[in-house]
Structure prediction request, 426 residues.
Amino acid sequence: MSHHQLDARRILCPMPVIRTQNKVQGLAAGDTLEVICTDPGALHDIPAWCRIHGHHVLESRQQGHEWIITVQVGASAN
Amino acid sequence: MSTPRKAVALISGGLDSMLAAKTLLAQGIHVEGINFFTGFCVEGHTHAIRKKDQEKPKRNNALWVAEQIGIKLHIVDVVDEYKDVLLNPKHGYGSNMNPCLDCKGFMVKKAYEWMLAHSFDFIITGEVIGQRPMSQRKDTMPVVARESGALDRLLRPLCAKLLPPTLPEREGWVDRERLHDFSGRTRKPQMALAAQFGITEYSQPAGGCCFLTDVSYSKKLVDLWTGRGTREYDFDDLMLLKVGRHLRPRPHFKLIVGREEGENRFMEGYRHQFMHFQTVSCPGPLVLADGGALSDDDVLLAAGLVARFSQGRDAAQVDVQVTDTLGVSRTLTVTPRPAEQIPAEWYV
Prediction:
């Protein structure tokens, strides 16, 4: 299991979701991905995308004007 | 038990595509959704930037629909490929810069490619005959099927009974009798079907889901092309057309004036790409100058406008910092330009 980061700052939804989706395609079940966003819409969209595809949001936190969403890739990834 | 046939559904986030997918799910078809991001999609963008929109739901409706009906949704970035659709629409534009029929053909073509790549059997859309004046007419239905390459693997569950049977119907994968015969602009059949499925909440985009159907956005896009002398654009251009007040005081440059804190913050990400202005003696917006090289006169004109849109608009003089694309700054002291010296035609 490995940990990855994705810079999705200064892009607007749905781009953070698309970048997350594309990144997750190359990860294995159990891997974690930390997505850094500036569009608060990602706080809704990334968890929705995760629920649909069987991934898990481990944490969402705000740091200044940025939001960091940590996703764990699910067993039935992609 | 045989493996269920698989359909990829174009999901826009509206009710029709939701019902089309739900109709097939009810027949035991495995459905997954696909949604294309052209860069002109209304979803989310400006809501996320402007404070006045902060209370609107920020959800992506396509994702929301997929979750409600329990299907996967694949969102595909087609920004680059979409340029050719916008710039060279074989079937022309609608009332604004919307190439609706070409757009539909393009999206079905992309869905068809996805279908082949993922071993799915057919494509479904929420199209209804007569629903849209340009892209959803009886005579355009075969055009989309033909030009996309999908041919009879394209099924429109909401109006299928008004069209010749498609492959999924002829092969018995789908029961044609349980499809629909909706037509025209009325929404009543859709609302009745939604009630039948127990769907009580759905999005009803008033002006469609594409910025290209918007008069103001289309004007800004055409102005961008005119100002540059070419119909080229990139993704950043599309984003910036959605934010700020746009003024073109001279043919070779325009100013993008942040209207509030959220827009200013968003535009900060573009400072390194544009000459930009900000008042220093009083609060004011971030202003980006988009265009060719600005002469000293142009810079002074722009600074006067920047001062005009700042809180120092009534002051005798305002200090405005100008920073070029190399990051070199200088401060100009200017008189805010009087409102009566800003012709209406400068506003894009």
Observations:
- Strands of chain A lie at 3-8, 32-37, 56-63, 66-72.
